[in-house]
Amino acid sequence: MPDTPPAEGVFRRLTGAAPQDEAEPPNFLRHVVALGLTKSGDGLADAKLVLSWLMATLGAPGALVGLLVPVREAGSLLPQMLAAPRIRQLTRRKWVWAAAAAVQGVALLAMAAAGATLTGTVAGLAILAALLVLALARSLASVSYKDILGRTVEKGRRGTATGLAGSLASAAVLVFALLLIAGWIDRFALVIGALVVAGGAFLAAAAVFAGLEEERDDPDTPDTSLRAMLGMFAHLREDAQLSRFIMARGLLTATALAPPYLVLLASGAAEAALDSLGAMLLASALAALVSGYVWGRLSDRSSRLVLVFTGIAGAFGMVMAVALGAAGMAWALPGALFALMLAHQGVRVGRSTHLVDMAPEGRRPAYTALSNTIIGVALLGTGIFGALASLAGAGVTLLVFAAMALAGAWVAWGLDETGEKT
Fold first, then answer.
1. Measuring CA to CA, which of 24, 225, 286, 363 is 20 to 30 A from 58?
2. Cα dist. 91→221, 353, 366 in Å?
3. pLDDT, average across residues 263-271
């Protein structure tokens, strides 16, 4: 009996399943490696933490710093309805993802160059311009990825692939966070170096993904007119589960928007720890490290229940943070932040797995684009709402977000099961 190929052996140990064909194990590992590299790059160049710190250090105006997250989120989500029909015209979609990853790598290197050579408003505008390019490229990667994953990795191990990539990527961010906390290297130089490493990671991911074995698909010839793109909203009327999923996902964005308001609760000795770039990254990286693979395995069993549980857990973390702040126990807030990040990791893995598994084979790009476009608008609206709610205090804002997370869990409860039964 011939020896088991190394890739197949690793695949069996990670998934506990036999591959459907010879191509699945190496494809599975390419997904893990490529996604792990890009997730590492995302963590090293986090817009909410790293880029905002860099722009503030360079003396960029606060108004430009405030545009980082809206540009990053809206730029990566809103264009997807325009891109989806054109991607469906391609016989192989891996080249879209690989090219998008390469563009993101170049954009990150441009940010590093801007940070190292420019200051003030010019630096801020240059970084924002590069971030916009990155976000637009990311929109192409996002709308193509779920379709590629669904066609190259079988149901029941897709969540494992994305969850494992998240856990592996968190190790790089963890090292970065510890170096920032230790102070052995000049913080500014370390951040510029991290952006260079992030750019290299995206370029390497493009090369890895280009080797994916993807069967040619019959090219689709969708109508790319504006009327046809608007017609994609008909999916919401035709598929009640898609509408419910998008509603649940929109409400669960509370777990992504809440962390900055938790930081505002910190006071005294805890403020210095929570306010530091290193401590925030450390909490996020540890949450991803200990939970990514686990959330992935659980999502393959029931992504629906993962969304329910993480909504409840996220709300609990926010309420706990408010209670600790009111009790004067600010020193315990890092634990609440960690719990919240833990829940957010589960939301990310669960929503991705559920959408891939629920979408009919030919509708994955359309479902992905429609969902992401609506969520892009929702994130902008919720972000503005959160800023207005913050006038009443961080505690009130967190309680509002906790209510959103609980509502998201309730909506997710009504989703159909899509995972493999084992």
1. 286
2. 11, 23, 16
3. 53
DSSP state, residue 214: -
Q: Name the DSSP class of 421.
A: P
Kindly state the DSSP code that residue 154 receives in the 8-state scheme.
-
Supply the DSSP symbol for 48.
I
- For the chain, what are the domain ranges? 6-11+19-413
Residue pointed to by tokens 């722009």: 55
- Closest to 296 (Cα-Cα) out of 153, 416, 161: 161
pLDDT single digits (tens) 15-68: 656 666 677 778 888 888 898 899 999 989 988 778 878 888 888 876 677 677
The two tokens of residue 270 are 């805890």
Mean pLDDT, rounded, for 194-199? 96
Burial class (CB in 10 A: 0-12, 13-18, 19+), 82: middle
At 416, is the secondary structure helix, strand, or coil? coil
As a 3-state breakdown, the chain gives helix, strand, coil percent values, each rounded to 5, of 80, 0, 20
The string of DSSP letters for 309-364 reads HHHHHHHHHHHHHHHHHHTT-GGGHHHHHHHHHHHHHHHHHHHHHHHHHHS-GGGH
Closest C-alpha to 302, from 260, 347, 350: 350
Cα–Cα distance between 290 and 166 in angstroms, integer? Answer: 10
Q: What per-residue string of b and e applies to 312-344 under the rule 16 or more CB within 10 Å gives b?
A: bbbbbbbbbbbebbeeeebeebbebbbbbbbbb
Q: Is 219 helix (H, G, I), strand (E, B) or coil?
A: coil
Burial bucket for residue 159 (CB in 10 Å: 0-12, 13-18, 19+): buried
DSSP state for residue 89 in the 8-state scheme? T
Higher pLDDT, 250 or 5: 250
Residue 188 scores a pLDDT above 60: yes
Higher pLDDT, 215 or 148: 148
Which band of pLDDT confidence, cut at 50, 70 and 90, is reported for residue 406?
very high
* Both tokens assigned to 73: 């989120």
CATH value of 6-11+19-413 in 3.30.930.10, 3.40.50.720, 1.20.1250.20, 3.30.470.20: 1.20.1250.20
Determine the residue type at 129: A
> Which of residues 155 and 184 earns the better pLDDT score?
184
Distance CA 319, CA 315 (A): 6
H-type alpha helices, 153-233: 158-182, 187-210, 226-230
| HSE toward the beta carbon, residue 16, CA cutoff 13 A | 7
Overall pTM surpassing 0.90 (yes/no):
no
